[in-house]
Amino acid sequence: LATALAASPTVAACAPVQFFRGSTGRSDATGALTDSETAFQQIWDQLPSDKQGNLVEILVAYIRSPLFVQRRTM
């Protein structure tokens, strides 16, 4: 099962969105992507493929991104 999931393009497309939602405490039952989620997916896609599965590399990319550095005031 793990091998099949790792090779799945659907899982590869879903993983960055779920990681972003989990790290920001968001959930969305509709499945619609927010602008932030789309932006994070683009950051993820820019990582070399061997680093996309590395949690430390993903966290560093997220923390360096404007999504983490620039926050809206509420």
Folded structure, characterized:
Helix 2 packs across helix 3 (35-46). The model has no long low-confidence stretch (mean pLDDT 80). This protein has helices spanning 2-7, 9-24, 35-46, 55-64, 66-69. The protein has 74 residues and is mostly helical. 65% of the residues lie in helices and 0% in strands. The chain is built from five helices and no strands.
How do the strands and helices of this protein lay out in sequence?
Elements: H1 2-7, H2 9-24, H3 35-46, H4 55-64, H5 66-69
| pLDDT < 50 stretches | none
Biggest sheet: strands, sense, closure?
none
Strand content range = under 5%
Tell me the Rg in angstroms.
13 Å
Shape: globular
Provide the helix percentage: 55-70%
Order of helices and strands: HHHHH
Ends: how far apart? 43 Å
Structural class: mainly alpha
Quick gist of this model?
By secondary structure, this protein is mostly helical. 65% of the residues lie in helices and 0% in strands.
Brief descriptors of the model:
74 residues; single chain; mainly alpha; globular
